UniProtKB/TrEMBL annotation:
UniProt xrefs under SUPFAM superfamilies: Cysteine proteinases (SSF54001), RING/U-box (SSF57850)
Record Gene3D superfamilies: Cysteine proteinases, Zinc/RING finger domain, C3HC4 (zinc finger)
Stored InterPro entries: Papain-like_cys_pep_sf (IPR038765), Peptidase_C19_UCH (IPR001394), Ub_carboxyl-term_hydrolase (IPR050185), USP (IPR028889), Znf_RING/FYVE/PHD (IPR013083), Znf_UBP (IPR001607)
Domain UBP-type: 1-56
Alphabetical list of Pfam families matching this protein: UCH, zf-UBP
Protein known as: ubiquitinyl hydrolase 1
Superkingdom, natural source: Eukaryota
Catalytic reactions of this protein: Thiol-dependent hydrolysis of ester, thioester, amide, peptide and isopeptide bonds formed by the C-terminal Gly of ubiquitin (a 76-residue protein attached to proteins as an intracellular targeting signal)
Taxonomic path: Eukaryota, Metazoa, Chordata, Craniata, Vertebrata
Annotated ranges, domain USP: 81-200
Organism: Anhinga anhinga (Anhinga)
GO MF terms held by the record: cysteine-type deubiquitinase activity; zinc ion binding
E.C. numbers: 3.4.19.12
Length: 200
């Protein structure tokens, strides 16, 4: 919020930090004056937070391998960037990295329109996996990243929640078990059918 008692307002007065970004609307505001800032130079920030891809860009991903430059001057190849290791989540990072380079899966999740209108039952938390995986995929393939690595924190929080803590950030897990669970969970959350004796 931006009201007089909000954390943002108090912070702006105490520390003379005046530009704030609403993470839901992606609009910038100047506090404490409370007016919207419209400046095209801030578009880089909103694109890093919510990268988007056209169908043409997705089609050309495997045809045009082009290096991108990060904010610190290092170069990286979109899709081939590091995932931060928060504690003991390297097993999950390896699986997520591998899946991000499977073209049909990558292409599906890069275009949010493919799944954003899927209807899920009220209170269904499993669709959070789909949303977070799509966000992570778009960040991994973003040609305008500020750094040559990406944080999988939101994705891993969804994994911990949706797996009922079977897969955690703080203790090592088995990559094969995680891969099997994750693919089945995505399949189910996207409206796939369940088989009694074997998984899809």
């Amino acid at each position: 919020g931006r009201g007089l008692k909000s954390h943002a307002y108090i912070h702006s007065v105490q520390f003379s930090h005046h530009v704030f970004l609403n993470l839901h609307t992606l609009k910038f505001y100047c506090l404490p004056d409370n007016y919207e800032i419209i400046d095209s130079s801030l578009e880089d920030i909103t694109y890093v937070l919510k990268p988007t891809f056209t169908t043409q860009q997705i089609t050309n991903l495997d045809k045009q391998a082009k290096l991108s430059r990060a904010y610190d001057g290092t170069t990286y190849l979109p899709g081939i960037v590091g995932l931060n290791n928060i504690k003991a989540n390297d097993y999950a990072n390896a699986v997520l990295q591998a899946l991000s380079n499977v073209p049909p899966l990558r292409n599906y999740f890069l275009e949010e329109d493919n799944y954003k209108s899927i209807q899920r039952p009220p209170g269904d938390i499993m669709f959070l996996l789909v949303q977070r995986f799509g966000e992570l995929m778009r960040k991994l393939w973003n040609p305008r990243n500020f750094k040559a690595h990406v944080s999988p924190h939101e994705m891993l929080q969804a994994v911990v929640l949706c797996s009922k803590k079977n897969f955690q950030i703080t203790k090592q897990g088995d990559g094969v078990d995680f891969l099997s669970w994750f693919l089945n969970a995505l399949h189910s959350a996207l409206g796939g059918t369940k088989k009694k004796k074997k998984s899809e």
